[in-house]
């Protein structure tokens, strides 16, 4: 086998190998069009090398002319793919130059088969044999075809297009890419064109070796593509390592990471996340699968929050219960973010989920303890009112007994006085209802249960508490002044707990005025709307606030001899749970009595006014 055959076969084999590798890359990832165009360029170069070898080994002018004619087919594929590669890979170049080249090159290919023996010769008159790499090869002599200028003009357009794209890339800052790809294409295309012009116009007697120049272009393009492939592989490796670190950090913090591909309705989750919902590691998870694991009472709320996040492109957040396959429940909190495509359509949601079961259990336990403590405080308060409550009950009971005895006497008369008896029975019913109302209020105050928030009328609560503590206030010689603002908004609260707070403030005010003479015991209760809140103010003319007034809301701090120091802290915690505030301030009174005022502020309910 001759050296010419070996060398040109090696050129073709190298190009075909590179073409196969990049074609495989494109088949694996159909978006990598640059690899497909490079593959076509390499196949075109291999075809040119084969045709050049055919020309050098031609025995007759007809064989040479046929080989030269078919050489323009791979040349056309090579050059068109080259233009596409430059525009796509470098993201540069003027489109009108590219389309002008494609049109002119296609025209030259048509002329190659329609005019003369081929595009370059009207007629090949004879073959000349010259030594080349130690053997004799064929070169042609004949009548040049003027249509050859069309093909050479198309090559000039190719050089202009690539040069323009190279300048754009250079200015963009990608100088290495501009030199490697753009510079090599311009240089080797010009060199190959010059060599072809000199040979075809018979200025030099030398075989066609254009494929060698385009091999240089293929090598430069392959080198840059391989760098990008290696860079992508490195980025992929770095990304995988980063993902592993993130997953490790998330799982160490107790987070379960997830990603929902909306179009495919597929949810990927880390091992921690799959465990939170009771899914197997190899389970195929969809949005519907996840919704089935959410507690039925929370399902609608979660669906609504996810739908809002997708429609309004806002972050998703929620707390809900998960029911596992073994019917155990756990509380989780989830946060997610929506990622849209270029048109703004949501394509995925990513986020993290955390198990908060332990926190919820601790919160419920603390709530139960708080309710137990509040109940104990109410019992203590009622014990302080026991004397006045007994008197409150004794009065209607004594009246009921007296009226019942009178009714017996009236009925024993002959004839019985039925009209008077009916009036007495009406009094009995009225006093019975009065006693029943006292017992009802007492039972509601002593009731032990969970907090129940509902719209409440503030003025009604004030009236009930004042009525409940009426005898106690009268017994202490306290004069009550009330100023209740009309048309106050309702508040969202627990009826019993708000009664407890107000009753505690009234009892504290009574105790603070116990050392005053009867004329100096004045209690004032005012309701009003202030700064958007509903305010209840309880003022007294007692001893005022202690010097360290900032501590009165601390647990176990008290100024009473027999106090526990829990009343005001419990009251403040109850009002804080109602999203309100409990404040205290000194209030100077006429006659030099310092006094104190406690302000209970609550936010108005969303609807309704009293």
What does this structure look like?
The chain folds into four domains: 3-232, Rhopdopsin 7-helix transmembrane proteins (Up-down Bundle); 253-355, PAS domain (Beta-Lactamase); 358-450; 452-610, Histidine kinase-like ATPase, C-terminal domain (Heat Shock Protein 90, 2-Layer Sandwich). The mean pLDDT is 79. Strand 5 and strand 6 form a beta hairpin. The strands form four sheets. It has a five-stranded antiparallel sheet with strand order 4-3-7-6-5, sandwiched between helices. A five-stranded mixed sheet has the order 9-11-12-14-13. A three-stranded antiparallel sheet has the order 8-10-15. The protein has 17 helices and 15 strands. It is an alpha+beta fold and 610 residues long.
Number of helix segments? Answer: 17
The shape is rod-shaped
Give the integer mean of the pLDDT values. 79
Number of domains: 4
Question: Mind telling me the C-alpha Rg?
Answer: 49 Å
Ends: how far apart? 109 Å
Query: Which stretches are poorly predicted, pLDDT < 50 over at least 5 residues?
Result: none
The CATH architecture assignment of the largest domain turns out to be Up-down Bundle
Q: Within the CATH hierarchy, at the fold level, what is the topology of the largest domain?
A: Rhopdopsin 7-helix transmembrane proteins
CATH class of the largest domain: Mainly Alpha
Strand segment tally: 15
Describe the strand arrangement of the main beta sheet, using strand numbers: 4-3-7-6-5
Percent helix, as a range, is 55-70%
Strand content: 15-25%
Biggest sheet, open or closed, and with what strands and sense? 5 strands, antiparallel
Look at the helices and sheets and give the structural class: alpha+beta
């Amino acid at each position: 086998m001759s050296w010419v055959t070996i060398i040109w076969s090696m050129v073709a084999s190298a190009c075909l190998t590179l073409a196969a590798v990049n074609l495989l890359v494109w088949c694996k990832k159909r978006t990598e069009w640059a690899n497909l165009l490079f593959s076509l360029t390499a196949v075109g170069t291999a075809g040119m090398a084969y045709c050049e070898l055919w020309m050098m080994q031609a025995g007759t002018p007809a064989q040479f002319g046929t080989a030269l004619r078919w050489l323009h087919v791979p040349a056309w594929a090579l050059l068109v793919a080259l233009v596409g590669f430059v525009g796509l890979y470098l993201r540069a170049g003027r489109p009108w130059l590219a389309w002008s080249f494609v049109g002119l090159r296609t025209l030259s290919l048509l002329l190659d088969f329609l005019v003369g023996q081929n595009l370059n010769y009207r007629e090949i008159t004879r073959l000349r044999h010259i030594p080349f790499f130690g053997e004799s090869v064929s070169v042609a002599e004949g009548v040049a075809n003027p249509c050859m200028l069309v093909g050479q003009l198309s090559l000039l357009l190719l050089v202009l297009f690539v040069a323009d794209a190279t300048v754009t890339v250079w200015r963009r800052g990608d100088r290495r890419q501009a030199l490697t790809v753009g510079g090599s294409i311009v240089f080797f295309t010009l060199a190959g064109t010059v060599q072809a012009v000199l040979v075809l116009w018979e200025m030099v007697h030398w075989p066609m070796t254009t494929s060698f120049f385009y091999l240089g272009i293929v090598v430069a393009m392959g080198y840059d593509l391989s760098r990008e492939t290696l860079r992508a592989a490195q980025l992929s490796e770095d990304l995988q390592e980063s993902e592993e670190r993130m997953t490790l950090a998330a799982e160490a913090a107790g987070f379960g990471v997830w990603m929902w591909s909306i179009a495919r309705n597929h949810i990927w989750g880390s091992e921690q996340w799959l465990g939170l919902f009771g899914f197997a590691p190899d389970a195929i998870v969809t949005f519907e699968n996840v919704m089935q694991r959410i507690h039925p009472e929370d399902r609608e709320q979660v669906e609504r929050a996810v739908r809002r996040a997708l429609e309004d492109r806002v972050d998703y957040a929620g707390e809900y219960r998960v029911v596992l396959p073994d019917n155990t429940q756990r509380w989780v909190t989830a946060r997610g973010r929506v990622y849209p495509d270029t048109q703004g359509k949501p394509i995925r949601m990513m986020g993290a989920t955390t198990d908060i079961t332990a926190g919820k259990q601790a919160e419920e336990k603390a709530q139960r303890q708080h309710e137990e403590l509040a109940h104990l405080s109410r019992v203590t308060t009622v014990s302080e009112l026991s004397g006045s409550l007994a008197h409150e009950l004794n009065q209607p009971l004594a009246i009921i007994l007296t009226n019942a005895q009178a009714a017996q006497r009236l009925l024993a008369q002959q004839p019985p006085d039925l009209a008077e008896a009916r009036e007495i029975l009406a009094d009995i019913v009225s006093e019975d209802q009065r006693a029943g109302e006292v017992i009802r209020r007492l039972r509601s105050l002593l009731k032990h249960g969970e907090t129940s928030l509902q719209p409440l009328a503030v003025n009604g609560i004030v009236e009930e508490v004042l009525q409940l503590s009426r005898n106690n206030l009268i017994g202490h010689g306290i004069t009550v002044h009330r100023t209740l603002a009309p048309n106050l908004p309702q508040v969202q609260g627990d009826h019993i707990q708000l009664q407890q707070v107000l009753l505690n403030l009234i009892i504290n005010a009574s105790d603070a005025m116990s050392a005053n003479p009867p004329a100096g015991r004045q209690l004032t209760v005012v309701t009003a709307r202030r700064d958007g809140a509903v305010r209840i103010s309880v003022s007294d003319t007692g001893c005022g606030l202690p010097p360290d007034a900032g501590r009165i809301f601390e647990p176990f701090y008290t100024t009473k001899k027999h106090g526990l120091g829990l009343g005001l802290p419990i009251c403040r915690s109850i009002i804080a749970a109602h999203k309100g505030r409990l404040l205290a301030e000194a209030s100077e009174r006429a006659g030099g009595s310092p006094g104190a005022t406690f302000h209970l502020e609550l936010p108005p309910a969303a609807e309704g006014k009293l």
